[in-house]
Amino acid sequence: MVIAVNTRFLMKDALEGVGYFIKEIFERIVIQHPEHQFYFLFDRPYEKRFVFASNVTPLVVGAPARHPLIWKWWYDVNVPGVLRKIKADVFVSPDGFCSLTTRVPQCLVVHDLGFLHYPQGYKKSHVLFYKHYTPRFLNRAACVATVSQFSKQDIINMYKTAAAKIEVVYNGVKEIFQPTSFEQQTVVKEKYTDGQAYFIYVGAIHPRKNLINLLKAFSIFKKGQKSSMKLVLVGRLAWKKNAFMDLLKTYKYRNDVVLLQYIEDENELAKLVAAAYALVYPSHVEGFGVPVLEAMRCAVPVLTSKDSAMQEISEGAALYFDPTNVADIAGQLMLIYKDERLRDSLIEKGKTIAAKYTWEAAASALWHCIEMAAKP
Predict the structure, then answer these.
(1) In this structure, are 143 and 186 located in the same domain?
(2) 119/193 same-domain check
(3) DSSP output for 25-65
(4) Which of 48, 302, 54 is nearest to 173 (CA)?
């Protein structure tokens, strides 16, 4: 087969969510299937490290697709021309968008419907685009993949997409996330938090990640516990970051908050997570929530949002809170801080749960979707 893949989220120094999904899965798929030819379609100059094998041909297609008008042009004009030229048998689009003009069968990956549930976390023009075109994309795709049963049911409920058309492709967890020794953890704490224990959050600094409520909850925790505990935030400064940054400037416990922004070095990130007292992941909406399982692999307990994909994937091996309720978040911070027996129990359960999620399994599941889409 000739398989074209939308790889516009494989970007230098900016790999997050969708980008990691593409990298980890297709790094495996192209090696596992050397009999097939892959074309990676980029919308800007690419890094050679993203050309994973000799059966991959990278192509730069048109201008960078960064807003709705260019999205429409890229998917419905530029991409179909390339698909015809390379005689593609299937087009895989892992970012929730696909072409409405090509006749080539398409495998579409929709990670979540966050724009429906938390529209204030997106630009208005983007929300309008998503709302208008997502049902059309779902209808046009030959096969739809999504990353949790939570998201699958959401797609069915919101768009009446046939369940048989949707396959669940769970994310994996990198093996680099492992428990570390007490001595290694001490070195990390000395480097980042003056030797103090810390809660950690990993993800973009973005409204839907709910970090303002996390700061408010951390304030309640600090007042109630009189603890030297720090809060480490690791993530790229994303859209609408100003409200969060303005609050942080005047935050009473600013000296106890360590903002590290984006960390490219995966080894360093894994060490940071493994040295944490607990991971706090308070996002309003996620299709999966990879940092939850990364922490569990590192033997770090997790506190996260209830009634979400994170609750599904953690399978009861975490503490859950209402992300809109600051007091509830603070209460769970205090509970994990005071109850060492509970903390140890969550750590043991978490390691067992996280071991089930591998990128090898994810690659196999997405390959099945590609084959489904390519069938005449």
Answers:
(1) no
(2) no
(3) HHHHHHHH-TTSEEEEEESS---GGG--STTEEEEE-SS--
(4) 302
Q: Do residues 343 and 366 both lie within one domain?
A: no
Q: How many Å is the maximal CA-CA distance in the chain? A: 66
> Which of these, 353, 262, 341, 264, lies nearest to 316 by C-alpha position?
353
Q: What is the layout of strands, in order, in the sheet containing 166-168?
A: 56-60, 37-42, 2-6, 90-93, 106-109, 143-146, 166-168
Residue 177 included in any domain:
no
Do 299 and 368 share a structural domain?
A: no
Strand arrangement of the beta sheet that strand 278-281 belongs to: 257-259, 230-234, 198-202, 278-281, 302-305, 319-321
Model confidence, pTM: 0.90
Residue 4: exposed, middle, or buried by beta-carbon count in 10 A (0-12, 13-18, 19+)? buried
For each of the chain's 376 residues, which pLDDT tens digit applies? 999 999 999 987 667 789 989 999 999 999 999 999 999 999 999 999 999 999 999 999 988 888 899 999 999 999 999 999 999 999 999 999 999 999 999 999 999 999 999 898 888 999 999 999 999 999 999 999 999 999 999 999 999 999 999 999 999 998 899 999 999 999 999 999 999 999 999 988 888 899 999 999 999 999 998 899 999 999 887 666 777 888 888 999 999 999 997 787 889 999 999 999 999 999 998 999 999 999 999 999 999 999 899 999 999 999 999 999 999 999 999 999 999 999 999 999 999 999 999 999 999 999 999 999 998 6
Same domain membership, residue 209 and residue 192? yes
Q: Which domain holds residue 54?
A: 2-172+359-374
Residue 316 corresponds to which tokens in the numbers above? 């009861």
Residue 20 burial (CB count, 10 A)? 18
Residues 204, 211: Cα–Cα separation, whole Å: 10
DSSP state, 67?
S
Tally the domains of the chain: 2
- Asked if residue 128 and residue 261 are part of one domain, the reply reads no
The CATH number assigned to the domain holding 121 equals: 3.40.50.2000
Q: Containing H/E element for 356?
A: none
Cβ(247)–Cβ(253) under 8 Å? no
